[in-house]
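4.2 Preliminary Data

To establish feasibility before requesting continued support, the project team ran the inverse folding procedure on a target of 397 residues. The structure was first converted into the token representation described in Section 3, and no sequence information of any kind was made available to the design step. The complete token record follows.
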């Protein structure tokens, strides 16, 4: 029997590679290694499930047993990968060693942990998987007050979902506007206006320095971004629960220890090959051309191409224009950011100062110096234009 295809990780990337590979190769053994039970579910749903009453169990689309049976694979749940030997082509787990013919690293990313002080810091939660979500729901007091650290994509989605679920919500971020790393200023102002309109309180230009336990609640110590000496300008924000949503960091420790090339993520070429033969990387842990693409469409596109390569037909990953969806019901957004370093200018309709129209629609075009459309952002009802504008990328405006 041939050495198995081993897939480390059972998120969207891992399960999609397994399914697509099995369509092309019915014989080669597949072994999936999972840090958790290995259930298949939609991770983007985690930040939009609370208000609709979804439990962790109800978010599961396919049980681990059913998912493994569907691709005739062996699933090893609740295992930690300890070491990778690329010369011997062996992966060491916490209870065994397994050989591989080809290996796919689909380990995803882990929440960035803030260096918070105070006796309440251990109570800060993050939501990055089903287990985290179950703990988060269990920790929520009915109708309580929740402080979200981070006003990025996940922070804004959780804030909207929590308000819809009947919670009082504060959002803290160092930046001057929400979504500062993803969208232009006008769209950030639109999101601020929309979420404030449903009751979210923003504390922008500030960071959390410490979390203290006070009379059965938590007190978040905030300092302005420009704070000088410790204690100057600090304020306390009383809350029942603190949710950290300040971002994710690709899981690279195993690959780094094995000698693979690492940037922000595991470096791969356009065939998703790492710097070591027969080892590939995909999803939130991988970096291509200086970019980590932790979104559904690039993962699905990459998984289909990688499956062909693994089955013996080397296939380059060619990404189409893939709008990123930000899903707060108060103001859905769709964005194709211009590539880093692209010269151009944003143009908006209506004018960015017309805040009254932000919750209805906002259209922004990023136009290059040669008059070509290089990116866009759409808000509210304007998101219906995303497919047409995606087709227009690279065309004169």
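Position-by-position output of the design step:
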């Amino acid at each position: 029997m041939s050495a198995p295809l081993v897939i480390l990780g059972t998120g969207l990337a891992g399960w999609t590679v397994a399914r697509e590979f099995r369509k092309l190769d019915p014989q080669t053994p597949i072994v999936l290694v999972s840090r958790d039970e290995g259930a298949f579910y939609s991770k983007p749903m985690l930040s939009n499930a609370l208000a609709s009453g979804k439990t962790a169990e109800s978010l599961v689309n396919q049980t681990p047993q059913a998912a493994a049976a569907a691709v005739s694979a062996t699933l090893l749940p609740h295992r930690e990968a300890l070491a990778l030997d690329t010369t011997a082509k062996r992966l060491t787990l916490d209870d065994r060693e397994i050989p591989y013919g080809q290996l796919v690293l689909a380990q995803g990313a882990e929440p960035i942990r803030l260096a918070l002080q105070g006796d309440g810091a251990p109570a800060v939660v993050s939501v990055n998987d089903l287990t985290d979500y179950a703990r988060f729901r269990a920790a929520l007091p009915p109708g309580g007050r929740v402080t979200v650290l981070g006003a990025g994509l996940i922070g804004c989605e959780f804030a909207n979902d929590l308000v819809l679920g009947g919670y009082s919500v504060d959002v803290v971020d160092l930046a001057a506007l929400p979504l500062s790393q993803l969208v232009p200023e006008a769209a950030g102002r639109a999101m601020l206006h929309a979420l404030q309109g449903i009751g979210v309180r923003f504390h922008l230009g500030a960071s959390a320095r410490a979390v203290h336990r006070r009379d059965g609640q938590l007190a978040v110590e905030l300092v302005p971004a420009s704070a000088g000496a410790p204690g100057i300008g600090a304020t306390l924000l009383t809350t029942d629960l603190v949710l950290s949503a300040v971002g994710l960091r690709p899981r690279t420790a195993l690959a780094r220890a094995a000698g693979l090339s690492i940037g922000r993520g595991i470096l791969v070429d356009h065939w998703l090959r790492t710097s070591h033969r027969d080892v590939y990387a995909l999803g939130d842990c991988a970096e291509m051309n200086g970019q980590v693409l932790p979104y559904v469409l690039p993962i699905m596109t990459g998984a289909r191409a990688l499956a062909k390569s693994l089955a013996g037909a080397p296939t380059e990953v060619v990404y189409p224009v893939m709008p990123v969806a930000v899903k707060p019901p108060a103001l859905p957004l769709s964005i194709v950011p211009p590539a880093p370093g692209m010269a151009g200018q944003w143009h908006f309709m209506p004018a960015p100062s017309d805040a009254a129209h932000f919750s209805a629609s906002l259209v922004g075009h990023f136009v290059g110096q040669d008059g070509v459309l290089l990116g866009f952002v759409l808000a509210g009802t304007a998101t219906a234009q995303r497919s047409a504008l995606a087709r227009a990328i690279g065309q004169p405006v």
